[in-house]
Design goal:
single chain, 17 helices, APC family permease
């Protein structure tokens, strides 16, 4: 007998086109990568911050190899949970790493929602009002819920339109800003200190976070048309599009503002760069594009994480309660996703949200590569040197990022460590209790026969 989730999966299978998948992937990446993280990357890396995006793209490309190989072999909605379960079995490691991924995606929604709020309030000079930023962020997350509740085609169609608008708009802004300012001003006129290479390396953690939206595609693999062929193609195209867009914007911002100006306006750096380069019209144009980009990013992310949580529930990796709600599990997970994302958006600022997301994602990513390398490499035809390269790159970036944060914000490192530990302990407790309950149920008939 099929569950509600199975029924809905078969109903939605093959409902997302290649172009729609690319739109969702770039929607999440560009929403977070450009508008939420450019200022924080520049604050760490200094004048070399465009290089951080290049290194981040290289590390992400290595990381994507595992996901593409696994998704081509076993395309599935909630694909990362599937990868981890096949790599480690249905135990604590697979469940905990899957939950870390889901949490990093929810964190991403909060990050992008607060970025939306900051840009939306910037024309009125209200971006420093914590209460208004929280209210606007929460309003966007609620809007994303209603779009997702309308179904897959609504999400795919909305993402496609918004992605076309924002990619074209961002490219136009970047080219115009570069044309107006050239390449020799702003941050690029400042001296480069080789002693800052450790900070550059630490900034790559944020750059990787800017590209992690490709996992949205992996988590929706079972709903993409011809998934064995199109999931990998969709991931590659999405990363390539974002590399071009990110570099254009990084150069435009770096040519318009000094490093200190970028750091000061790190939550709205593109809007700050637009005003000196393109005047008031350019400023408002950039704000409009930011609102479009962050809106589509939150919608696409809510879509992906609710699907992943549904998969985790159906695989019995996490507990589930209906709390009196009707309908299938997927609709419940949609509600839980927006509630958690909304809570984080209200309670945390952009910097800490981004840092937590980077820690959670990098730990999960390393567990994926190790699991594939250890047990699935031959079955999916993966090359060991690529998997080892991805593992080493992730570990180097994670170490550098942790040291950098210990110097500037040790509390966020403590939050990350506590959060990761709490996930593993909670999963161990839940799975142990579930195993005991199943053992008791299997023994009961034998006792009755006695």
């Amino acid at each position: 007998m099929q569950t509600d989730g199975d029924d809905q999966h078969s109903e939605n299978a093959g409902s997302i086109t290649l172009l729609g998948g690319v739109a969702m992937g770039t929607g999440v990446m560009i929403g977070a990568g450009i508008f939420a993280l450019t200022g924080q990357i520049a604050e760490l890396a200094g004048p070399l911050f465009p290089l951080s995006f290049i290194v981040g793209a290289l590390v992400t490309s290595l990381a994507a190899y595992s996901y593409i190989k696994m998704s081509n072999r076993w395309p599935s909605s909630g694909g990362i949970a599937m990868i981890l379960q096949k790599a480690y079995g249905p135990g604590v490691v697979a469940a905990s790493a899957s939950l870390l991924m889901a949490l990093s995606m929810v964190i991403n929604e909060s990050l992008v929602a607060r970025t939306f709020a900051t840009y939306a309030l910037r024309p009125f000079g209200l971006e420093s009002s914590g209460i208004l930023v929280s209210v606007a962020a929460l309003a966007l997350i609620v809007f994303a819920y209603f779009v997702n509740a309308a179904g897959n085609k609504s999400v795919s169609g909305f993402s496609l339109i918004m992605s076309a608008i924002k990619i074209g708009g961002i490219a136009l802004f970047a080219i115009a800003a570069i044309w107006a300012t050239g390449f020799s001003g702003g941050a690029f006129a400042e001296p480069v200190a080789l002693s800052g290479l450790d900070a550059l390396l630490a900034s790559v953690a944020f750059s990787i976070l800017a590209f992690k939206g490709f996992t949205t595609i992996t988590n929706s693999g079972g709903e993409i048309i011809d998934p064995h062929r199109n999931v990998g193609r969709t991931i590659i195209i999405s990363i390539a599009v974002c590399v071009v867009v990110y570099l254009l914007v990084a150069v435009a911002v770096g040519a318009s503002l000094s490093t200190s100006e970028i750091a000061e306006a790190r939550d709205y750096s593109l809007a700050a760069a637009a005003r000196p380069a393109l005047g008031e019209l350019g400023f408002y144009f950039t704000v409009a594009i930011a609102i479009a980009a962050t809106t589509s990013g939150v919608i696409a992310s809510v879509f992906a994480v609710s699907r992943m949580l549904t998969m985790l529930t159906e695989m019995k990796m996490i507990p589930h309660s209906h709390f009196g709600m009707s309908g299938p599990i997927r609709s419940h997970m949609l509600v839980y996703t927006v509630v958690i994302a909304g809570t984080l958006a209200v309670l945390f600022d952009l910097s800490r949200i981004a840092s937590l997301g980077a820690f959670f994602y990098l730990v999960m990513d390393m567990l994926v590569h190790w699991g594939v390398l250890r047990g699935l490499r031959e079955e999916i035809g993966a090359r060991a040197w690529v998997l080892w390269s991805a593992l080493v790159a992730d570990s180097v970036v994670l170490t550098a990022f942790a040291f950098a944060k210990l110097k500037t914000d040790p509390a966020v490192v403590a939050y990350a460590v506590a959060g990761i530990a709490a996930v593993f302990i909670a999963e161990w407790f839940y799975l142990s209790r579930r195993s005991q309950a199943m053992d008791s149920a299997s023994e009961r008939p034998a006792e009755e026969r006695r």
